[in-house]
Amino acid sequence: MADRPLRLGTRGSALALAQANLVAKAIGGAEVVPIKTSDNTPQHETGRADARPRINDKARFVREIEQALLDSKVDLGVHSAKDLPTDLPDGLEIAGVPEREDPRDAYVGHVSSLGEVPKGSRIGTSSLRRRAQILARRPDLEVVDVRGNVDTRLARYEDGDFDGLVLAAAGLRRLGRAEEIAFALEYEECVPAPGQGAIAIEARGSDNRAVTAVESVTDRGALGRLSAERALVAALDASCNTPLGATATLESGGRMRLHAFCGLPDGSEWLRDELEEDASDPVALGRSLAERMKAAGASDILARAESMAAE
Fold this sequence. Notes:
Blueprint: E1 7-10, H1 14-26, E2 31-34, H2 42-46, E3 49-50, H3 63-70, E4 76-80, E5 92-96, E6 105-108, E7 122-125, H4 128-137, E8 142-146, H5 150-158, E9 164-168, H6 169-174, E10 183-185, E11 199-204, H7 208-215, H8 220-236, E12 244-251, E13 255-263, E14 270-278, H9 282-295, H10 298-310
Parallel strand pairs: 1-2, 1-4, 7-8, 7-9
Antiparallel strand pairs: 3-8, 4-11, 5-11, 6-9, 6-10, 12-13, 13-14
């Protein structure tokens, strides 16, 4: 049994497979097992574009992989960390996080800054968080919902359906499409999604072989940053239907800074905050910033944002 290669469960998209193969290589070889997940709906595959954001259920990206883990059909689950809910099934844990890719959002288009985007431009994105922050800075733009994988979205842009796209820089880089990036959006322009750019490797806590293999490739800084971001999400009781951004950065002197944003989908109201504390307790940092944001009205903003998204 010990001689059998570890089995890595993953979604079957090009990006998910690329990430799983990175993990397989890092741990010295493993069998990548694509698993069909319930996000593979016809609407998702056709990449329908609509001016109105669509409600998402984040767990749809991972539930079948987690079930395969619980049933011992695979030994590890490899996820985009931003897709992994904060509540994990009993018996499962985040066993490790490899070195993180650039967490920023990236603009695809023929300009070199957000300020240069012409008034009235049609910008495609799949994220309420990106929509809220773009419209907060540029209410003169038209932000349009676009679905499908990265290649589908880029093809629609090339076909002229949009004047620009906003995607995760990490996904473009991991797919070998970094040349598509016109510029990256800095944190003060668009706070990334919690976990964006990070790979979360999930395992059964009782599986010592799998957990040990993952610990050997874990980047402690990346794990700490992700822990702070996920703690903030959990403390705010946020869902994937709310425009929430959170990203942590490691600072000098063993410090960690957590940047966060929440707002309404139309960009009309928002709250941005950041907090720096000792990096030794990232969970406490996430909770502390969440409490400060709650005191400033974050819970009310998130509740109204979810209501607006559901209309």
